[in-house]
Amino acid sequence: MNPNLCKEVMNVIELKPVTKHNYMTVVDLKVHPHQEDFVAPNWLSLLEASYEEERYPFAIYQNGTIVGFLMSSYYPADDAYPIDSWWLERLMIDKEHQGKGIGRKALTHFLKDYKPDKNVKEIRIGVEPDNEWATRLYESFGFTKEGTVEGENVYAGEWKA
Fold first, then answer.
1. I need a labelling partner for 52 at 20 to 30 A (CA). Which of 3, 6, 37, 70 fits?
2. How far, in Å, are 35, 39, 56, 97 from residue 94 at the CA level?
3. Cβ proximity of 67 and 104 under 8 Å
4. Measuring CA to CA, which residue among 86, 92, 83 is closest to residue 30?
5. What's the pLDDT band for 81 if we cut at 50, 70, 90?
């Protein structure tokens, strides 16, 4: 058997909607203390998804185990940002599972398979200015900085599908 194929099979990343069956596990995911200012707690994201329109929360699974969280959102144009736009609003990997390429694989999967509409070309991401890891990740996917909104650097990229 090809060892690379075996390695790939053992590292399956899936995105599944957050439901009543998995939300508590998502809430229990944590980042390292020095990362807490970079991403909202998952409980807050799930609360937003419950009460605000156009929020789409996903659990990130690796080999059947929840290891992270991702949420996309749609925002119509407003005073804060003048363009109707889709956003990758949250992406976090639990502190016990970081450094294994899971975030990169989840982002690849999301950009390729979760495009909301064939006419949508761009997606935006807000990044805390001090979050150098996230900045490098998004730039490696071709995201470019557009400016700053509400204290976050805004990057625009393209859906891959």
1. 37
2. 11, 12, 19, 5
3. no
4. 92
5. confident
Q: What is the pLDDT of residue 6?
A: 40
What's 146's DSSP letter?
Answer: E
CA atoms within 13 A on the CB side of 79: 0
Q: What is the pTM of this model?
A: 0.89
C-alpha distances (whole Å) from 32 to each of 36, 38, 41, 109, 128 are: 7, 10, 12, 24, 15
| pLDDT at position 161 | 60
Residues 6+ apart with CB under 8 A from 110: 15, 58, 70, 72, 88
CATH pick for 3-158 out of 1.20.120.1200, 3.40.630.30, 3.30.565.10, 3.40.640.10? 3.40.630.30
Number of H helices, E strands in the chain: 5, 7
Each residue's pLDDT tens digit, 11-22? 799 999 999 999
Distance, CA of 126 to CA of 155 (rounded, Å): 6
Two structure tokens written together for 23: 């939300």
